[in-house]
Amino acid sequence: MTSTATTPELPPVYCPVEPAVHPRADAIERRAVEWVDRMPLYRDDRERRRVIGTNSAEFYARFAPFGPEHNVQMAAHWVYWGFAFDDARCDSGPLSARPDLFLAMAGPLQRALEAPYENLTEDPLVAALQDIGRSFHECATPVQVRRFCDAHRAWLFAVAWQIVNRVRGHMPDLAEYTAMRLHSAGGAPTLAMLEIATAAEVPAREMDSPAVRALTEMAVLVASWDNDLHSYRKECWEGHTDQNLVTVLAHHEGWTAEEAMVRGVGMRDRVLARFLRLREDVRPKASQELRQYLQCLGHAIRGNIDWALKVPRYNAVEVAGAPLQDPGWADGPSDASTDPLPIPGIAWWWDRVAG
């Protein structure tokens, strides 16, 4: 356990997207907690407090503030499930240091999602995921379900990658970490649910275009890096900072945590600025479904920040030592360069798409 007095404070946050939340967020949360209790996604009262303390209903109500209530409800269930799964099978527990056992569990888990009407296991987390899968089949299109399942599989693969690094004692460099983090944070399935939550299927010719792929990946990375920055204090308190944007930069560049935090924020700001510019270039010719999706990507970035600054998962004294201080809002990016970040695998967001 490391004293949080030694961890740097967050600088002001750049995000010129207005906050929004679904008007029925409280009702969605009430029903979601009832679902968590019915599954259940915990073994004791402490785990129950931790799962419910993720405020997952509010989290997704910020991502899809205008979606049909039932669809947003179903998406919120997966977010609660995802946090419970992350705590039990990814960041801690016997599988968090055994990639072989994790993969042996993750394969059947993924198949259970893809075949949610089959009784494949008695694992309560699998049963809960299948309940979510059935609800998606009932309220979403086959294309939306497939896109979510594909993103879910990519997430499980990246978590295994992360566990392998942990077992090897390997600190990835920035390029490797960025490639891994695009999926290991769970951003891809979370954003894949936007189409489900809003009941709007984006045509494949648009969703699979380089520009929209880049926009989706940028939104994932900004939110993932934001999570790294917001959770750094908690991870220091728990002694669990083996793979985090701050520690990656500090390790490979020889920087202090404060210097790494400042540099990480600058990189994050450059990606967000590129996202906002490219989104404006894509919007004029976009279908109604794509415009709605692009709007929700912005809500996801802003909603993730608003949620993180007060959620007990990052701020309760017993899990973080001290709450995050409100950093305030920056008027512009801390790094105003429009040049591509020199990170292999993402430089194409600037070089190879329109805008």
TrEMBL record:
Its EC number is 4.2.3.-. InterPro entries: Isoprenoid_synthase_dom_sf (IPR008949), Terpene_cyclase-like_2 (IPR034686). Keywords: Lyase, Magnesium, Metal-binding. Its cofactor is Mg(2+). It comes from the Bacteria. It is an enzyme of class 4 (lyase). Belongs to the terpene synthase family. PANTHER family: BETA-PINACENE SYNTHASE-RELATED (PTHR35201:SF4), TERPENE SYNTHASE (PTHR35201). This is Terpene synthase. It comes from Actinomadura napierensis.
